[in-house]
């Protein structure tokens, strides 16, 4: 039994700190692009976010520790653990992102986008796209709700749902019929121009 206590301690540490941090990290990455992490970096970052989550719940945690009657209410104990370990780590990242995107906050803090590419395409704003290929050719396309742009750290690849015929000067002429759009890789172009879609 002497060797069992450290295992319990590690399990409690993982459930109260690391596991909530892992949830927060994954939820954050559903809303914002982020760099890939090694397992070591994941552990440290998850512990950091889990510690923030734990500090938010610390007053209730210590209250429960000094309230023996609380143990007689397993439902309340379960709900508290559920909120601490699962609900709060899920809710905090989108709230934090909403705060960072607030215009008043943006005056004082940098937006959390790792690249300008991610900033532009996160808006999901429709646009005509003129792509300057490295060989000098120009390709036109339409970026809309069915298009897709990869995000950091694999930004640069683009799927445009419609192909548009352009002349030698890059003027948009007409949609190319019977196509499902096209893919273009980061290494195939040197410049991308975006033009507003007129109503």
How does the SSE layout of this entry go?
Elements: H1 4-31, H2 39-65, H3 74-101, H4 103-106, H5 116-122, E1 127-133, E2 138-143, E3 148-149, E4 158-160, E5 162-166, E6 172-175, E7 182-184, E8 189-196
Antiparallel strand pairs: 1-2, 1-8, 2-5, 3-4, 4-7, 5-6
Helix pairs in contact: 1-2, 1-3
Write up this protein.
This protein is of the alpha+beta class and 199 residues long. Helix content is 47%, strand content 19%. It has helices at 4-31, 39-65, 74-101, 103-106, 116-122, and strands at residues 127-133, 138-143, 148-149, 158-160, 162-166, 172-175, 182-184, 189-196. Strands 6-5-2-1-8 form a 5-stranded antiparallel sheet, with no helix packed on it. A 3-stranded antiparallel sheet has the order 3-4-7, with no helix packed on it. α1 (4-31) packs across α2 and α1 (4-31) runs parallel beside α3 (74-101). It is elongated, with a radius of gyration of 25 Å.
């Amino acid at each position: 039994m002497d060797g069992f206590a450290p295992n319990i301690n590690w399990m409690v540490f993982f459930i109260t700190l690391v596991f909530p941090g892992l949830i927060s990290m994954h939820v954050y990455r559903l809303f914002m692009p982020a760099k890939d992490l090694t397992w070591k970096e994941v552990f440290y970052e998850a512990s950091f976010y889990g510690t923030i989550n734990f500090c938010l719940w610390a007053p209730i945690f210590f209250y429960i520790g000094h309230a023996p009657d609380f143990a007689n209410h397993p439902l309340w104990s379960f709900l508290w653990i559920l909120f601490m370990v699962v609900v709060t780590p899920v809710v905090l990242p989108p709230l934090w992102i909403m705060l960072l995107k607030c215009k008043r906050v943006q005056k004082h803090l940098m937006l959390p986008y790792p690249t300008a590419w991610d900033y532009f395409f996160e808006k999901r704003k429709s646009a005509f796209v003129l792509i300057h290929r490295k060989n000098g050719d120009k390709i036109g396309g339409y970026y809309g709700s069915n298009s897709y742009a990869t995000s950091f750290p694999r930004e640069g690849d683009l799927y445009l749902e419609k192909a548009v015929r352009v002349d030698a000067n890059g003027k948009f002429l007409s949609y190319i019929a019977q196509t499902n759009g096209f893919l273009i890789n980061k290494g195939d172009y040197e410049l991308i121009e975006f033009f507003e879609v007129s109503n």
